[in-house]
Write a structure and sequence with these properties.
The complex is a heterodimer of chains A (114) and B (115).
Chain A (H helix, E strand, L loop, with lengths): L3 E4 L2 E5 L4 E7 L6 E7 L6 E7 L4 E4 L2 E6 L4 E6 L8 E7 L10 E2 L3 E6 L1
Chain B lengths: L4 E3 L2 E4 L5 E6 L6 E7 L6 E7 L2 E4 L8 E4 L6 E5 L8 E8 L9 E2 L3 E5 L1
Parallel strand pairs in B: 2-11
Antiparallel strand pairs in B: 1-3, 3-8, 4-5, 4-9, 5-6, 7-8, 9-10, 9-11
The chains are: A mainly beta (114), B mainly beta (115).
Chain lengths: 114, 115
């Protein structure tokens, strides 16, 4: 089955700096890769996703890149702000069928220092 | 509009008690998932419903776990004879159409503590 590994487990940056979180996946059939942000006491919230037919996607300060050959994808946050502090999870799944349960990484705790 | 809601938000149970956790998905969403999130870990899949049909329960850790969605909307996750290792946050997610091609929207979770 699919396995997703995520690095680093913790990341501390100064406000205004960039943050990069990396994930690798094992199942080459996976073709949908969402990123979720989870704040303390809340459920995961989708912040950006990418499908395997594109290599990069950007939404304001957030971007995701995908390398299918190497089976890894990354989240890039630019101009970080204190409110970006949270735990970020990457996930992978195969879409197009009747299933689609997400396989999550173990999370990255991002701290943005003012 | 209203998102996914879950109740109770917190539940403390004595070992051996039965518990029932409720999920109200976004209205009209066909697919519903349950995930278990241990402290400091990512969510792990438990089970999946498409309308009222439970199509996958491969993630349920034991036969003490049971889920239902009888009318294709509200779902209940039941844990019988709770054990300490059942302590976790239980997350519910729903998506509009068939799973796998739609964004999954998560509820706030139910934090279960088994003493």
């Amino acid at each position: 089955g699919e396995n997703v590994e995520q690095h680093p487990s913790t990341l501390s940056v100064q406000e205004g700096d960039s943050a990069v979180i990396k994930c690798t996946y094992s199942d080459s059939a996976s073709n949908y890769f969402p990123w979720y942000k989870q704040e303390l006491g809340k459920g995961p919230q989708l912040i950006i996703d990418i499908r395997s037919n594109v290599g990069e996607k950007k939404d304001q300060r957030i971007a995701v890149t995908l390398n299918k050959t190497a089976k890894h994808f990354s989240l890039h946050i630019t101009e970080t702000q204190p409110e970006d502090s949270a735990v970020y999870f990457c996930a992978a799944t195969w879409y197009g069928g009747s299933q689609g349960n997400l396989i999550f990484g173990k999370g990255t705790k991002l701290s943005v220092k003012p | 509009g209203a998102g996914v809601s879950q109740s109770p938000r917190y539940k403390v149970a004595k070992r051996g008690q039965d518990v029932a956790l409720r999920c109200d998905p976004i209205s009209g969403h066909v697919s519903l998932f349950w995930y278990q999130q241990a402290l400091g870990q990512g969510p792990e899949f438990l089970t999946y419903f498409q309308n009222e049909a439970q199509l996958d329960k491969s993630g349920l850790p034991s036969d003490r776990f049971f889920a239902e969605r009888p009318e294709g909307s509200v779902s209940t996750l039941k844990i019988q004879r709770t054990q300490q290792e059942d302590s976790a946050v239980y997350l519910c997610a729903s998506s509009l159409r068939l799973a796998g091609s739609e964004t999954q929207y998560f509820g706030p979770g139910t934090r279960l503590l088994v003493l």
